[in-house]
User: Fold this.
Amino acid sequence: MTTGPMAPHHRRAIATVIVTTLVALALATGSLVAVFYKHLDANLKTGQAIKHLAKKKHTGPKDPLNILVMGIDTRSGAGNKIDNETGEGGSDTNILLHVSADRKTAYGVSIPRDTLVDRPTCTTTSGKTIPGGTAQMWNKAYALGGPACTARQLEAVSGIEIDGYLTVDFEGFKSMVDAIDGVQVCIPKPVNDQAHGIVFKAGTQTLKGQQALNYVRERYSTPNADIGRMKRQQAFISSMINKVVSAGTLTRPDRLIKFASAAADSLTASPGFDTVHDLTKLAGQLKHIDLTHIRFVTVPSQPYDVPRSDPRWGRVELLPGAKNLWKRIIDDKPLSKSLISGSISAGAPPGSTSPSGTSSDTTSPSSPTGSTSPSGQPSDTQAAQEAAANGLCA
Assistant:
């Protein structure tokens, strides 16, 4: 099968790191929260409520949580004019975070921004009606109607009730990375993207603010383009979570304070998640999840196999496996074995060594084909090839 590469866009995705914000806020104990409560609360922005299309099953004393986390493509606001481009105001990073009802596991599902879906009708904060449409780009919902419209779109596509959403911008991302003195990544080959001013040496290294933003923006240096960029974003988030809960951060109140402050300054949250009290309560439910039980996957998908003249060329279609994944989330089931084999774990980010001494698995779950071992899992060779195609160390 031959497919065209992702259509070129001038938009730049940012890593979505709100998951780590929740952990950090949970770790900000009584006196710390009391001192900065007013400052953090004043800077958190409240978004529009979601007009739901889906209804959650209630099966126990606690319900699972489904939170849509978005990185927005905007150049408005202080610190966001990072290049000479205007951006289009879409949600270029979209991660659905599912937290199990027993609060023992969590997994994030990345949705490609170029996925074509049927968008439902929604209403903006000003009361303007945004008509629905068929075969619409995923990130167009945010550009037209904001985060609540994107959440409503996800409900229409998946049947999953979204409890709330969080968004972050460029400057917030950079500030959060700097607050914890950088995040470690492993780059398998040198990157020399002169056209966009992005250059990296190979190997394990710690990236700070602008370097980190360049790392999660870059999509021209690997064969998998946008899909590879999503995997690197997942890897970066995993490494960031690992850093936030490490002794080097937990024993540094100054870092926690800066991290929480940077997050609050750049966050827009749906009602119910828009105060420090809301976030610390939520984070308190997450902080006891073992890092090995926090994983990131990509919704099963692939570029359309169509000629360049077809309007779907360079866009992404959801595979049948996406429906199975949506159902698992609705039923509050763990990831399937096939998805786990391709997931990225916060307990062992790519290029690091897990507690058991084995390297983390970075096989892409969105790949429809690939060689497997006798157990049915991707072979070491195939996994290494997938990792390299995504710009990750095996």
User: Anything to note?
Assistant: DSSP finds 13 helices and 18 strands in the chain. The longest strand covers residues 91-99.
